[in-house]
Amino acid sequence: MIRTTLTAVALAIGSLPAPALADSTKAYCTLAWHDDSMRTIAGPCGFSQYQGNVYVDDFRYYKFAFPAAEDGKTYTRSSTAEMLSFRREGHYTLNVFWEKPARDPGGY
Q1: Could you give the C-alpha distances from 9 to 1, 3, 4, 17, 78, in angstroms and in order?
Q2: Residue 5 and residue 7: Cα distance in Å, rounded?
Q3: I want to staple 68 with a disulfide (CB 3.0 to 4.6 A). Which of 15, 52, 72, 98 is the partner?
């Protein structure tokens, strides 16, 4: 009886869905302030996404959170194959690149 109960409990626990894990990766970020007196900064950063919520950390001592429920309200999110962009109007634009962008050969 105990063996049957333990087997049933083990099967029930094994059939539970695994908790969703965040998608995390190293990326390259640029932060452009909408105040012209502050310089744009760039460098490596950490990117993670969980249930549509985006977190950027390890970026020059800055951390950012972009809750999915706030998209279109407190920030605007846009994306291309190469990057994601988060814009807080009047404050800053944060770009997250999957690979460090190449320098423009004629621009420097």
Answers
A1: 12, 10, 9, 15, 46
A2: 5
A3: 52
The predicted structure's pLDDT at residue 105:
60
**Stated pTM of the model:** 0.74
Q: What is the rounded CA–CA span in Å between residue 85 and residue 27?
A: 13
CA distance 86 to 92: 8
Q: Are strands 53-59 and 23-33 parallel, antiparallel or unpaired?
A: unpaired
Query: Which segments of the chain have a pLDDT < 70?
Result: 1-22, 104-108
Length of the chain as a residue count: 108
**Alpha carbon distance 60, 80 (integer Å):** 24
pLDDT for position 13: 44
**CA neighbor of 46 nearest in space, from 65, 68, 67:** 65
